[in-house]
Specification:
The chain is built from three helices and seven strands; from the N terminus they run E-E-E-E-E-E-E-H-H-H. It is α+β, with helices and mostly antiparallel strands. The protein has a four-stranded antiparallel β-sheet, with no helix packed on it.
């Protein structure tokens, strides 16, 4: 660690970080919740060997190319939230014609004609 380039990087939810256009994924025996968003010290020695350090301990890792990178895995809470957001935006963006729109006028006229045909006494004020 004496003759090495050192930089701090933040881990993603998938325990990944990017350093010199290479994605490093930390290998953890557990789910790694405590490592999410952690600051990791990336150390590269003069031979080009990269070591990842967290709280004074080095961590094993694998390298991932951009093609191998997988999509984020969502838990059920995150998935439900994203679906709710999409449904709400679709509901808010639905087209509603104005009150004087021809479609609404035609429907209103048909309703009045049906009411007059069914009960002429109710339709005409006397």
């Amino acid at each position: 660690m004496i003759l090495s380039c050192q930089e701090l990087r933040k881990l993603s939810k998938n325990l990944e970080l990017s350093y010199h256009n290479v994605i490093y994924q930390i290998q953890s025996e557990h789910k790694g919740y405590r490592l999410r968003k952690a600051s990791i010290l990336v150390s590269e020695n003069t031979q080009g060997i990269v070591t990842l350090w967290y709280k004074g301990k080095w961590w094993p890792y694998t390298t991932i190319t951009k093609q191998q990178r997988r999509t984020d895995v969502l838990n059920h809470k995150e998935k439900d939230h994203r679906v709710d957001v999409v449904v709400a935006t679709q509901r808010n963006n639905a087209y509603k014609p104005a009150a004087n729109h021809p479609w609404k006028r035609q429907v209103a006229m048909m309703v009045r004609k049906n009411q007059q045909a069914l009960s002429p006494a109710l339709a005409s004020p006397s």
